[in-house]
Amino acid sequence: MLKLYRYLKPFTFSIVSIVMLVFMLVMSELYLPTLMSDIVDIGIVKGDTAYIIRTGAYMLLITALGTLCSIGVSFLASKTAVGFGHLLRQQVFARVESFSLQEFNQFGAATLINRTTNDITQMQTLTFMIMRMMFMAPLMCIGGIIMAVSKDPPLSLVMAVAVPLIAGLIFLILNQAIPLFRLMQIKLDKVNLVLRENLMGIRVIRAFDRIEWEQRRFDLANSDLTENAIRVNKLMAGMMPSMMLVMNFTLIAIIWFGSIRIDNGGMQVGSLMAFIQYAMQIMISLLIFSMMFIMVPRASASAVRINEILETTPRIIDPIPAKSPPTRRGHLEFNDVTFSFPGAEEPAISHICFQANPGEVTAIIGSTGSGKTALVSLIPRFYDVDSGAVKVDGIDVRDLTQEDLRSRIGFVPQKSVLFSGTIAENIRFGKQNASDEEILQAALTAQAAEFISEMQDGLASQIEQGGINVSGGQKQRLSIARALVRQPEILIFDDSFSALDFKTDAKLRAALRKNTINSTVLIIAQRVSTVMDADQIIVMNDGQIAGMGTHQELMGSRSVYREIVLSQLSEEELA
After folding, report:
1. Residue 520 phi/psi, 5° resolution?
2. Strands across the sheet with 387-392, in order?
3. Was domain 4-310 assigned CATH 1.20.1560.10?
4. Rounded Cα–Cα distance for residues 385 and 103 (Å)
5. What is the reported pLDDT for 245?
6. Which part of the chain has CATH 1.20.1560.10?
């Protein structure tokens, strides 16, 4: 947890101010019982009204000063805690953004969301409580002990019994609660995971009539979290009554033995009242500690989870120094590339060698699981190769910065993803400073202009979250337009035409031929009709290249490609 508090450095001035205000507040609270005891003793013995009024005025002044200090502490503590949460959330988000797909798969989306929201909120709340209370509690406890001993050392022996007893109770309860608090965050992750899957897969759930099953699944995760929370709260609920019991017995003992000392003339009534106030301040400081320790275990578990993110070093980092291709070309080369997914027993692709040149279309076809997507994922460095090299314009992609490399690539993923906002904003996502003419040209090439013009607001039409208000084919065409608008050196289409009808598919490929004459185009497809007119066809099978050439060359041999073609087209269609 202490590692995270290095992010409080920007708020050093506020923290120093809080400490000073807390010190003034504690001093004022410690001084008030002494003034009160003097008023009681002098007022009873001498009837000195003027002294009582003067001392009472001092007490009111000190109370007002303490109130101002308390307001200042609360304001600065709130500002510091919120700033700490903002900075920590920013750092966590930046680190997550730097993760490769391997780190994303390692953590999972549900827990990353939970750690960025709930866990940081726990840390933020604890920081406020530390600033507001934990600075004050030890000062009040130590000051109270000093003042109590100065008032009556023999009577202070009562505190020597009460304080260790309360500390023992706190330690005993927290020793059992801390593991449960850590478990609670894990169970909260599970609830978030189930809820996220339910919301994202709601269409599938309803289509297969699995609503009751999902309700039971959520109820199970929710009940597990609830039972854990109840166990923790039962433990915490026992802390307060136990401490109040000890405090009340301590108060009884102080009054009992104090009255004996007053009767023997060893103590004044005012001194006993002051001693009781100091004893209460000591007890209250320990009570504050107990309240803090209720929050510390859960925040500690959250801190561990946040540190796991901040201390995870991305496997894909920029080289120092980085190289840069001298000119804009887009020549792509795979040189004996082998790659395995993390934890996989066998490579996803093995010994891949081919070249793709600007102005050419390279198509990649193969059965499901043959390694097509794994192959193109290596170009923008979503993953790094195990051996061999992927080169852009003769330079290994690992020697380029990720920003430089990806600025040269237009990538259309297998699953089309749109963001909430207008159509123009979604297309402009590919090129931030794209003009309206460039957006319109990209839409025309992607065969999206027709349906955009039919929408009420055209390019200004709103896209709902996840693109739920457009069809699958429309989402694919907008995703293609987003990649085209940046006019990249390398264009990658990862099975991006699957939702298009044959007519739109053909028109789109024809438009791509005209508008990407300076780009290296890679197309992953399942349809033979999509790849037939490619300059180069790569056939993947079991992670290896099973054939390479044009459509006619591959059809001339008894190859895997021929089997794929014959499974989709008849002899008459081929003729």
Report:
1. -90, 120
2. 349-356, 332-339, 387-392, 395-396
3. yes
4. 16
5. 85
6. 4-310
Q: Whole-angstrom Cα distance, residue 304 to residue 115?
A: 10
Listed residue (414, 423, 468, 418) closest to 448, CA to CA: 423
Question: Where along the chain do the CATH 3.40.50.300 domains lie?
Answer: 416-487
CB 278 within 8 A of CB 150: no
Average pLDDT over residues 436-456: 87
Return the structure tokens found at 276: 């009781």
**pLDDT tens digit string along 230-273?**
888 887 777 778 878 888 888 888 888 888 887 787 777 777 78
Length of the chain: 575
Strand (E) or helix (H) holding 388: strand 387-392
Distances (CA, A) of 18 to 74, 88, 133: 9, 21, 11
| pLDDT at position 328 over 70 | no
Give the whole-angstrom CA distance, residue 333 versus residue 325: 14
Answer yes or no: are the C-beta atoms of 548 and 539 closer than 8 Å: yes
Q: What are phi and psi of 119, to 5 degrees?
A: -65, -40
The reported pLDDT for the residue numbered 231 is 86
Residue-by-residue DSSP string for 114-137? HIIIIIHHHHHHHHHHIIIIITHH
Residues 6+ apart with CB under 8 A from 200: none
Q: Is 500 helix (H, G, I), strand (E, B) or coil?
A: coil
Tell me how far apart the alpha carbons of residues 298 and 149 are, in angstroms, rounded to a whole number: 36
Query: Whole-angstrom Cα distance, residue 178 to residue 298?
Result: 7
Check if the beta carbon of residue 80 is closer than 8 Å to that of residue 8: yes
Measured distance CA(228)–CA(201) in Å, rounded: 28
Rounded Cα distance, 459 and 462, in Å: 8
Phi then psi for 412, rounded to 5 degrees?
-115, 110
Q: What is the fold, at CATH topology level, of the domain defined by 416-487?
A: Rossmann fold (3.40.50)
Residue 570: helix, strand or coil by DSSP?
Answer: coil
pLDDT of residue 260: 83
- Angle of CA points 40, 42, 43, to nearest 5°: 60
Helix 157-200 crosses helix 211-263 at what angle (to 10 degrees)? Answer: 170
- On whether the CB atoms of residues 228 and 180 are closer than 8 A, the answer is yes
Determine contact, residues 213/197, Cβ cutoff 8 Å.
no
Helix/strand/coil percentages in the chain, nearest 5: 65, 10, 25
Q: Are strands 361-366 and 387-392 parallel, antiparallel or unpaired?
A: unpaired
Q: What pTM was estimated for this model as a whole?
A: 0.73
Question: Nearest-CA neighbor of 531 among 553, 507, 502, 551?
Answer: 551
Which tokens is 508 given? 């789109």
Q: Which residues contact 568 (CB under 8 A, 6 or more apart)?
A: 527, 528, 529
370 secondary structure, DSSP code: S
